[in-house]
């Protein structure tokens, strides 16, 4: 073949990462080193939920959550252990951290200082996008205004001190998981970008003629679903609109600074528990959506593992996903050619359609006063809940096919999940106890006066207008813990409860699924009449720190549509709070949603609380990513039903909920 159409020099591969971290800093460090030895070219750190939400391991709110979905980092000692033996001057490190992003960056910088790594060489990313936490993932702490101040301070500090660091990674990934269409994903993420740039510009911490330096350090983190042609067009539309916004709104004249820079994790929540071997081809197709188009190619890619719908992946599973990237980059000829889609009228039409729709949606958000106002009014959350409800309806009706779930369900047993096989990583329960003892020992050996003085400075700076990064660095060096740093800012700013978005949704209409819902509604009404009540009442609870509320919200919406009166108070509740609400609201059923792996701690605590409150008869059901052995343990403890991702048909779940209420009350 002629060399005329090939690039003179093949493109360099993107940064290859796997999202990793669990149990302890030492165990995660060993995992990082193994992955780097296998050819991974960047680190992507997963933090556990207590770290993400600003709690120490010995806090009541951290019970059952330590080390489960990521690594616990409570102080400088943990950060040293996490990056032990890794040259931070040469590393490219992504940290999925938002509300305490300033704190984790300060820990990272301090470890780099101790290594004598020049700050100007530090390369990597702090996600630091709090807006999407209010909408989807739930690891927010403070209200939007103060949270945006923290983001602004990090950006201003890094531009001056760590110029190769990406201080914010505007994240549309979880927006797609929460239901966003491509148009909504692009529009809502760009609205966040505008809010961030406006805040930095208006803070006065960056000179007006230096705004281009801020723009070039902003990156995006996106989701890529299995509709890979549409996803590729979405990324081209993203780049087109970002170039327009930064040129026209902020006057950035350097095209290189305006370049849309993004990393990607392909769609983890699109993976299935049923026939999990199908997840391999899903991951490959999703990777193609963000690599095929040279002019819209990801700068960094991290792929989930085939078994993430089942539990925590093992190192071997992560290696499989890394090898997918390496085969595409090094064995195929993808990187040898210019953009494959330039000049395609089909692609151009699809890109224009997404871009035009996103402009209109972005205009709506800006007319409301911007993304913060759209969060506080509940507009964005309601839009996402409605979009996800529509996606669920298409799946239930069979309009959207999910192979192995709602079509082609006949299957041979998978050797990947054969009975008795250890097909997920298990977190040792002793991890939490060790972390608790570790943070107590850390506090005992530090200079208490220095820690107190550093926290006093942080509180004083938070009450004023100073950039909080220097006070945070002082806290790190003085031995302050994650929970103490966040606690001081909680005192200054308070905590926030985001809108739930449950005003959205609606009945299914004249469809097969709608007919099935009507049958369930009739059973709900009949059961209420049998119990002498006006309506059946259901409490949907999210115990612990797990903020992935999409499933709980869809259950709540469908239960409401089925005729239940639904009590849903949002995320991050203690078992005691759930029990109190169940008793006070006199509900007929409690539904708990746990996706973080803490079900064996959180659910028994609720059951015991109900017994102590005199309501041992109140039925409890549980949904989440729950291995079969754990599900049996929960049933033996008294849970009436356990639902996992394979239970996708919401009307069937609603029917089971009615049956549970009838069984609990001795009704035929």
UniProtKB/TrEMBL annotation:
Alphabetical UniProt keywords: Cobalamin, Cobalt, Isomerase, Metal-binding
GO molecular function: cobalamin binding; metal ion binding; methylmalonyl-CoA mutase activity
InterPro entries attached to this UniProt entry: Acid_CoA_mut_C (IPR006159), Cbl-dep_enz_cat (IPR016176), Cobalamin-bd (IPR006158), Cobalamin-bd_sf (IPR036724), MeMalonylCoA_mutase_a/b_cat (IPR006099), MMCoA_mutase_a_cat (IPR006098)
Pfam families cross-referenced by the UniProt entry: B12-binding, MM_CoA_mutase
Coiled coil: none
CC cofactor: adenosylcob(III)alamin
Source species, domain of life: Bacteria
Domain called B12-binding: residue spans: 535-664
Record text on subunit structure and interactions: Heterodimer of an alpha and a beta chain.
Family statement: Belongs to the methylmalonyl-CoA mutase family.
Protein name as catalogued: Methylmalonyl-CoA mutase
